[in-house]
Every structure is written in C-alpha cells, then in structure tokens.
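S.,

Sequence below, as promised.
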Amino acid sequence: MNRFNRRRRAGKWAMLLGEVSKAYKGDVQMKDISSIRVHQHAANGQKKAARIFSMGRSRGGLTTKIYALVDAVGRPIRQKLTEGQADDGRSAADMFDTLGAGQVLLADRVYDSGALRESLVEQGAWGNIRLMPNRVRKPEFCPNLYKERNFVERFFNKLKHFRSVAPRYDKRDDNFLASVQLASLRIWLRSYESVT
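The prediction came back faster than expected:
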C-alpha cells in the first residue's frame, strides 16, 4: 500500500494513463458518467469534509460520480471524480480539451448545451450529442453514429469488475482516483492482449 501511495503522490498513475492514451489517433471520443456507491467504512468521515473526498448525498446514500472520456473502442482517455449530487453537464466542462480538429464527441443529452457545442466548434471538433426534447433550434445529429456510444457503457462495465472500484472503499478521493486510473491502465493493456 505504501508503494501505491508513493506513486499516487508522485502522479505516476495519471502520467502513465496520459502517456498510454496518447496512442489513440482516432477521430471519435465518447463521454459518460457512472455513479459508485461509497462503502460504509469509507463513509465514516466528518460530514463537512465529504466534499473534499468527492462523496455526495443521494437517495441511495453516499455516492461518487466517475466521469470518463473514452476512445472509439472504449479505452479510457481521461477521468474525473465529483460528488454524487454534482451537475453532470457543468462538472465535465473541463474534460473536452483532448478533442482536436476533425474529431467527434458522442455524448448523452445531459451535455446538450450551446456553450459546449460552441467550444467544440472552436476546437475544430463536432459534437454528436443527443438533443434535449425541448430544444427549439435543432443542430445536426446522426443517430447511426450515436449507436456507437455503447463502448463507453462497456468501459464502465469493465471498470466495475475491479474490486477496488465497484464499491468505493477509499476514503480519500485521490486514492480512489488512482485506483480508477490503475484499473483503466489494465483495461488498456487487455485491449492489446492476443486472444490466440
């Protein structure tokens, strides 16, 4: 455990995930969120400090949200944690700087905002974001391309197979994020394993 903490403090897990995700040269990235229940042993800290630890109250108790940006085959590029009750659209606004010219973002309707679409256009990217039902001015949307977004759901399914991630056992959010990053590195490595 001490070795894990030393590497987390040195930023090794985040650096490794960043270096591995640079290998992706595709043109599609996908964004989604998953809520993780906080285990009762991790939730016994001070109530005022819960924001520091990215734990928030919801109907099911304390939860943490994992925001993930993945490539076209479901390998993680970037991750972030917030409290369980945080607004999904606003909390993820700082995660889209990895999108470049000619790339496409596939995202759910929670990200359907004019500000996000404008920032993507400034970066040279296009957002194939599911439209809110009450939207008056409807931007272009391709439902066939949107079907490929299931790879981000598959990523969360793989991520929740790791015992250190599925229920959140870590009290500190930096330790939990490092566990998520380490599990993500293993998902990247598995994608390169030979099946023969």
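The helical segments are 2-9, 12-21, 88-91, 114-123, 143-146, 150-159, 173-191.

Coffee later?
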